[in-house]
Amino acid sequence: MWLKPEEVLLKNALKLWVTEKCNDYFILQRRRGYGEGSGGLTGLLVGTLDTVLDSTAKVAPFRILHQTPDSQVYWNIACGASQEEITQHWEWLQQNIMRTLSVFDSSEDITSFVQGKIRGLIAEEGKVSLVQEDDPEKFREALLRFESWFCLPEKEKLVTYYSCSYWRGRVPCQGWLYLSTNFLCFYSYLLGNEVKLVVSWVEISRLEKMSSVLLTESIRVCAGGEEYVFSMFLHLQQTFLIMEQLGNYAVRRLIDKEMFPDDHILSDPLQITKRGLETHARNEAFRAFFRLPREENLLEVYESFLWVPFSHFNTLGKICVSENYMCFASQDGSQCHLIIPIREILSVEKPDRSSRALTVCLRGKRALKFSEVRDFERLAGTIRRKCGSTASPQHSVSNQVTSLSEFPSSLSMCVFLHLKEKMKEQSWQIHFAEYGRGTSMFCTKKTRDLIVRGVPEMLRGELWMLFSGAVNDMATHPGYYTELVEASLGASSLATDEIERDLHRSLPDHPAFQSDTGISALRRVLTAYAYRNPKIGYCQAMNILTSVLLLYAKEEEAFWLLVAVCERMLPDYFNRRIIGALVDQAVFEDLIRVRLTQLTEHMTDLTFFSSVSLSWFLTLFISVLPIESAVNVVDCFFYDGIKAILQLGLATLDYNMDALLCCHDDAEAVTILNRFFDSVTNKDSPLPPTVQQASAGSNDKGTSRVDISDLIREAYEKYGDIQSEEVESMRRRNKLYVIQTLEDTTKQNVVIVSQEVKFTAGHLDELYALFKRQHFLSCYWTANSPALLHHDPSLAYLEQYQLGLSQYSLLFSLLQPWGPGTNTHSLALWAFRLIDENHDGLVNFKEFCDILYSGTFTEKLKFLFKLHLFLLPQTQFIQLSKTLYALFHGDPEEESLFRAVARVTSLLLRMEEVGRRLQENTSPSKTSTSPLQPLSPATSTTSPFQTISPPETIASPRPDAAPVETVTSKLQVAHLGPEPSSPCKTGSDGAPASPDGSSNPSISSSTMETEPANTPSDNTAPTSPTDMEWSFSFEQILASLLNEPVLVRFIEKPVDTENLLDRARKDQLKAQMMKDVSDWSIPAECPH
Fold it and tell me: Which residues form the signal peptide (predicted)?
């Protein structure tokens, strides 16, 4: 490999390098400890030094230096992993460079020419992906070591690498951590002790930072029951974030089967880079903080001061610019941020160049003044350019009109407003006057205080739209909802059926949903969303949430609020596995351990809180609180996100702490919490009694009432210090654990379904791990894997992981107990077709286990027999004989087994000949159905098998000839018909073809026979004996084989399943590398 020219000191290098060749301009050297005379203490010390210092010499122990006769400076220009590789580079220099160097007059010109030539070679052979790396030259060397040490496929994309220590018990191993798209790898070499780790990201269940007495900071990785600890990172936080992103990316792509069609950074696993991952994480954090549409990306960031008119001071923060928004967030603890849509900006002025100030003029006669803006000229130009290209009209919540005019703007708007309600409205009007109203409103501590006190009924829909970011989604997609409603009208699917079933279960006691008006609006919103996002479709709890949204928002607004909740604020909540809710429950348990230690000490098992709190998270407390109280919780949720729900959950447990500590079982604890929720009221609610849903039990004298405003205020006072960034970090940490827990549950369910297969539970677990890993191997290095493209999340757990023919064949070759044979490929193909009954080209784990070797002698033989039913009759018999011969190859009793098969073959042929003669004598003109008789009428008295040699001849093959050739040549002399050109000939629908080319959809016969290609009519000339069809039944073959003890012993021989599984586990990745997938694909003339 050519290297970027770097200076080396030859004087010191002579201690570690040995010169092999040299001339006036170049020197070829070999690293000490490698090649001839390698080994010993020198090799150990040099190898250790190369690993610790990350020297390329560890994997490339040969190098070429450039020198000039009158200079003491040497330049390293090439390295090689072998003598052949470095010799090719040396010869190229001799042929292409040496002659040219003689024309230069000075050493400087020679060195400059050589360096330019080497850089040109590097640019030509460099990979496109390396251009995106921070240091392409260093990355090329790291990539060389990565490929050499771990022997992964060339397509495996190295993302980054770090120096660190891996702890084996209490002993640290200094080495290098390599992070690729699909694997976490580590390599260390210390004094002859080589440590090599390769861990798949999808097998990791825990990834967290930790500290101990010995290690101040380290990263702990748990995978497959093993624990790996890495420490001594130069940038531990950066390393940890990259590992988190790669683990999350692998889970989303391989387990959740996401394709990332709209994300160019993640769409191709072969082009993932460290810089791309960092950009993706930055964009996600930017969108999450400002609640922006998923199309927005962070383009530019500027530090500046913003003049806050209501406080009369400048606050320090950052200006963040995306495609359609200009946002500001303070950094001085004032918790001030605002979002400015580009569509709202009228002009940008630069009043004072000395202070680097900008004034942004907005619609509504408002202006924002920024000062001390770094590169303010560039920012002004960017905003002006975007303002000129943005032609979307102004949108606001107040002037939006629902597309369905018959639906009122608010279903529960009560005209009996209390005095406190009017006071709340007045407080918000003052806030609007000071901080602005609409999308460009300042959000500060005062805004949160007003939210905690409760939002007025008249403003609730508007503020929900604003704080959730749904107002921006709706403004950038005018008419989108109407199009969805029209497109989904009359559509029928599983989602629409479930929606219809749940419509009348959504707030059934509320007057708004006791008429067709409310029910129809709810149906349209849910159906439109299911049409928009078929991956989610419809999930229970969406109906309850949407019902509440419709109470305070117009129909189109309710739709966009649902989009914001499902796709941005509560990701992965509303699907069949509710992963997002389970992750947040794990976060909730972690917070209980930290914040409610007294409760933790009393209840060591916190899974109870996970089961009882699931509805809290899925419905935002709507299902457990009266509606007039639950809407206050929803207010806080739209402002603070999931943090508000976690805070309220902690406050609920804290409020009931004494009662929970006295509980004796879970049922008693559930009763206490239910009684508490029934006692929660909203004394400020202006809703009439017919709408309020407070339980009558809350009026009992023995039950004290709890006002929802007081409960929320207490939650913010005690737990308001929980940061959103902390919650997101806990989410990422727990997601891998939740995913692996669900995967383990899936495995247990699949294994239970497959228990009828004759394997132990432990062996089934290992088989499932191999099967699942093989499924992932088909997805690792391609963005268009069939397993990813055709994944259906609605399938049962048994169908979630399936194998196509290529992957099945590779796993079949690893697990077959008879050793590698010449017909392994054919056996795999026939076995795959035998179990692929629906002809979709995929098999699940249970089908895979059913076909494996297990059972009695008869069951094993029947399995081999069935594999050959896809062939023509004569070919079936010939191929079965070939298969048996191939299975015996390498067996200690190979010669005896060959002779036994020859005797069985001869016996079967004689039985067939006797049957044929009996048929000719008894019924010469009719077709017999006896399995011992031919299928076609015969008129000749001469048997076509008279040319076959006696059994003694067949059973005594020449030493230099393969026994299979001896028998099959005799069969072919008997004119059994030509063997098909392709043993996998099939019909157009993928089923095995019959001799006439038609499709045979199923094979249920237990006899090796098929109908003749052309059945003669009464006036047809007699068929020649050589064209007759003949067959053997399974019972005949079984009876013949039972006469040969050596064959019975071989087939009955028990399989060492433990060693076979262990060998398959070790060789699985290596086999995938060595076998190209295209080698296993079905030939073009045999479509499946």
Answer: none
